[in-house]
Design brief:
single chain; 13-stranded antiparallel beta sheet; two-stranded parallel ribbon; 47% strand
């Protein structure tokens, strides 16, 4: 039985053949690209320094849509550091019982400061997170979500056709979540939907979506089991192939047992994630 997805490996193979460091890129004509119906195949990723502020907002509701609480995890993600390394800094977590209004100032998560690694499927292994402490379920998701966004942006570049959904089967399958459960992508669909401008650069818009994905997780005295729908959009530069912006939305209906409790709850957890480029 398939035990993990292969999209991370596919992403690495793609990156190993397309990385470009500071090389001048050929300007593309958006009209010609749209007429052709395919993305420019000669475009290489210029893997220079990039920094994103990644903000993940969790909104928890009961099964009838009544608000329970909300939580924000925010951090700085930097790539292009050399030797394929990326890192996280200034990761904070904030919690609120108020549906409306701003989040309070978050508490810093010290074990995430300068957390560095090479993006690969190895980041699904528990030994990569041996120094993680409290709230690791949320901090691991920062790592895994970013791996997914980069994979969706680049791994099927040569297969996407304008407004034609592509079944990215290499993303499908069950993956182990660092020994604490599993998540299964059922049917990942990628669609190149057009060209726009973000951060002053022409960008391809790549939509992704997958529904009815089983989730089973247990850690830190908490357990959850349910299903996930998630979808979003990625802005990929047609000048240097770097990601300029991304959003992710997720809805998870789950049965949850919280620490110290004996009765399971049915919760609807919603996530909204933004990837805002700063450098």
């Amino acid at each position: 039985m398939k035990t993990k997805t292969t999209f991370l490996l596919a992403m690495l193979v793609l990156l190993s053949t397309t990385l470009s460091f500071g090389q001048k890129q050929t300007k593309v004509d958006p009209t010609e690209v749209l007429k052709s119906g395919v993305l420019p195949q000669s475009l290489q990723l210029n893997d220079e320094l990039q920094k994103f502020v990644v903000t993940t907002d969790h909104f928890n509701f009961d099964m009838f849509g009544n608000f329970v609480n909300k939580q924000r995890i925010q951090g700085e993600y930097t790539r292009g550091l050399g030797n394929g390394q990326v890192k996280w800094n200034n990761v904070t977590m904030a919690f609120s019982m108020q549906k409306d209004g701003d989040f309070p100032v978050g508490n810093k998560i010290d074990y995430m400061e300068d957390f560095s690694y090479s993006p690969s499927e190895d980041m699904l292994h528990s030994d990569k997170f041996k120094d993680f402490g409290e709230n690791s379920a949320f901090t691991k998701n920062l790592v895994w979500d970013m791996l997914g966004i980069e994979g969706f942006a680049w791994s099927a570049w040569d297969k996407l056709k304008l407004n034609v959904p592509y079944s990215a089967t290499n993303f499908n399958g069950k993956m182990d979540l660092a020994g604490q459960g599993s998540f299964e992508n059922k049917d990942m669909q990628l669609t190149w939907t057009g060209i726009t401008v973000m951060n002053g650069e022409l960008c391809a818009l790549i939509d992704y979506r997958t529904f009815d994905n089983p989730l089973d997780y247990a850690a830190e005295g908490m357990s959850m089991k349910g299903r996930s729908h998630y979808w979003g959009t990625i802005w990929v530069s047609l000048e240097d192939k770097q990601i300029e912006h991304a959003v992710l939305y997720e809805d998870v209906m789950m049965e949850m047992l919280l620490p110290g409790q004996t009765t399971k709850q049915i919760l609807d957890a919603r996530r909204e994630i933004t990837y805002v480029r700063e450098i």
